[in-house]
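Amino Acid Chain and Its Fold in Token Form
===========================================
Purpose: to set a sequence beside its fold so the mapping can be learned.
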Amino acid sequence: MSNRVEITARIQVPAPPERTWRAVVDWPAQGEWMLATRVHGGHGPGARVVARTGLWLVGFTDTMVITEWEPPRRCVVRHTGRVIRGGGVFEVVPAGTGSEFRWTEQLDLPFGAAGRWGWRLARPLAQRGMNLSLRRFARFVTAGAPR
């Protein structure tokens, strides 16, 4: 049985794809919309990105390497950390007069059967967190970001 899981969220953004893309890959600004996360890193294939997610003393560091970079449409990363492993995809596609932002995570669960069991409990929370982050993202872009 595979320990790879996938979770996806998407949202319509009332901004052109280029503006939405700039907001998506503005790593330091992700803290404005991505729940409990601070991010920094580079751009382009091979660049490293580091995210710290957590509250107070509880959290983890998510290290990534960009494996695909297709502005203003697609960024794919490979998660290389001890906690988070697998792939992540940010996509921006035209949608009417605006754009749609799609966020997909393809994660390799740790701990075998225990990881699969734990994912059953964690998945609804992870999905809610992604959905809330994307609603915050749409507000962030609508409010004028990136500047």
The mean pLDDT is 94. The first strand starts at residue 4 and ends at 13. The helical segments are 17-24, 112-142. Residues 112-142 form the longest helix (31 residues).
